[in-house]
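Justification of computing resources. Each target in the renewal requires a structure prediction run like the one illustrated here; the chain below, 390 residues long, is used simply to show the kind of job we budget for.
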Amino acid sequence: MNDLCADIGYKSINHVGEQLCGDHVDIVDQGDGSTVIVLADGLGSGVKASILSTLTSKIISTMLAADLPIEECVAAIAATLPVCSVRGVAYSTFTIIHLLNNETAELIQYDNPHVILIRDEKNYDYPRTEMNIGGKKIFKSVIKLQENDLFIAMSDGCPHAGIGMSYNFGWKREDIAAFMETVSVAGYTAKTLSTILIDEVNKLYGGKPGDDATACIVRIRKRVPMNLLFGPPSNRDDCDRMMNLFFSKEGKHIVCGGTTSSIAAKYLGKPLKATLSFERSDIPPIAEIEGVDLVTEGVITINRVVEYAKDYIEANTEYAEWSMKRDGASLIARLLFEEATDITFFVGRAVNPAHQNPDLPINFNIKMNLVSELSDSLKKMGKHIKVSYF
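Resulting structure tokens:
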């Protein structure tokens, strides 16, 4: 397996007046760099469309992950889901991106807007083979992956944006490709790129989407390891062992916590330099140690990072806050969410008496919960996580 990996992110908006989205994205990690991503668009909108798209994506992703051929997947969909009794048309359309060993992408597309591939910052016209499976016209493509390849899968709510408003005939696929060419050069994550695209779609709809709209983006990038040290070990005799393991790891090093920072500074033989400038009133200031990429306070800072992480995998509304600021929580968020692909946590089990005050909220009492919540959120972002306790 090469050193490439896939950064996957998606965002949806609902048809105006609907509580549920008629589009659904399902991602199945097969391990060893192989992943199945399915974007399904259910007929119509609302509850019925949501059920149809969810069933479609779940059936296809599960069968493909079990290495069953696409013909069987489509046949299973046709046999399982109903056809619209009024219009007699497809119950659900779908787009499949099947990544194999992070070396090859297999695209299978049925009636959704064709996937856009941005390569070398330009729209790349990849080959397509037309297939007929069960009377359905399906397009298949096999593409050798390159670093910085950007795959953009969409439901038809995206190109329909702006019909009769900003555009006479909607936001055409080539226009979307040109828009994404300009934003792809900035190095944004897949989640941020999907957010930018859907925000633009929503703007073209005048904030009242006439259809469900979903963008799922796959960004091919090189692996970037990162290490985070949080809390001193329960046994003081383990300090040197913990520090030795932490600093021997490849990648950037983040140290969180006052006592932890002092131990790290002593181990490195470098002074711990505190900064007295508060970037914001609710997050303690950062510090500096030569040989460490970022030094922050512990529980309060990590608690805020957990909040950012939970929002990031959902609506991503707080992106504007942490993407620009220089406080400890924002800096950690940028490193973990946008830069890192493989993250190792070194977590000390020592109990801090200051966190045992019963008047404090529960998440201040249990440091382990913060680590668990943060690692779970990072896994949902597609990061590879390892946690070592001391």
